[in-house]
Amino acid sequence: MKAIVKALIRKAGFIAMRQSSRVYLPEDDSYRVALEQCAGDAPVIIDGGAHKGGTVDAFRAIAPSAEFHCFEPDATLAADLLARFAGDRHVHVIAAALGEEPGTAVFNINVSRPTNSLLPAAEGLQSDLQGLCQTVEKVEVAVTSIDAYCAQQGLSRIDIVKLDLQGYDYRALVGAKNTMQAARVVLVEVLFTEIYRGCHLFPDVLGLMAEYGFRLFTLSGIHYGSRAELLWADAIFVRDERRTGAAAAAA
């Protein structure tokens, strides 16, 4: 849920905390923090859930030489991205969803396109959120995994993995096991409650990233429902050098 959804969620009665020094990190700062932790002038970035290219814009404002591999399964949005970045050798647009392995799947096009997902909306959501996630069309889309794509393209280096897949992020991370061996930073949307049926929640992502050798660096853009329930946030994971160093010393 990014900039396009902000106006909608305000009208829907959700609470998005505002910036306060050393108290809260707004979601717009996620890209800056990710780049700072990556510490590279020309990072190679996986952009899962590219939508209209906002991630490219945000990273490029700080790192103009970054290279992007943008995945967007919504055919309309993918066509717009292909047209927008035609001739840009630093932006590669792939009209596919990200998951555990290559194949096809049914993709839900919702009333609010930023809520599009491979998963249906959960039952019992707050009525306004349920309205945003109401499915208006189901389409079959291609699915690939990050590992399969990197192998196919001969990519040996991915610095930042950014995922905003509306409940499917965990499964995309499962399909990135090999890529995670060299990745430096992961920026991923995490859910604290079941917004999408069958989605994995924050503890699952936290555990998987620990298995991959990453630690949670920070959370940003924390959103609450009208009943003060935690809904979602952006989580930034960095490689746990302390763990790596301890393992090397033990060996």
From TrEMBL:
It holds the Pfam family Methyltransf_21. It comes from the Bacteria. The keyword Methyltransferase applies. Keywords: Methyltransferase, Transferase. GO terms for biological process: methylation. It comes from Candidatus Propionivibrio aalborgensis. Residues 47-216 form the Methyltransferase FkbM domain. This is Putative Methyltransferase FkbM family. GO terms for molecular function: O-methyltransferase activity.
